[in-house]
Amino acid sequence: MLKLKVDSGKCIGCGLCVSIAGDCFKLNDNGKAEATCEGDQKKDGNAKVMEAIESCPVQAITISK
Ligand code: F3S
Question: Within 13 A of 24's CA, how many CA atoms are on the CB side?
């Protein structure tokens, strides 16, 4: 199981992760991203999530087993 996490202290709310993988990220009321599919990702279905992680300008998204 993979755990997705957004560090709200780092996130600047650019929204890139939401536009790349909108089923796994959303912007909350504070304008920060939140992971919405935590623990739900199959390893081979993660291309979009991995792209979002790599695209975040402040590296606010982490993934762990
Ligand atoms: Fe925030 Fe990075 Fe997404 S800055 S909105 S976590 S792409």
Answer: 26
Instruction: Decide which of 21 and 41 is more confident.
Output: 21
CA 35 to ligand 1 center in whole angstroms: 10
What separation in Å is there between the alpha carbon of 62 and the centre of ligand 1? Answer: 11
* Percent above pLDDT 70 for the chain: 86
Q: What is the pLDDT of residues 4-25, one digit of tens each?
A: 899 999 999 999 999 999 989 9
CA distance 57 to 65: 23
CATH number at residue 34: 3.30.70.20
Atom of ligand 1 nearest to the CA of 10: 4
Total domain count, the chain? 1
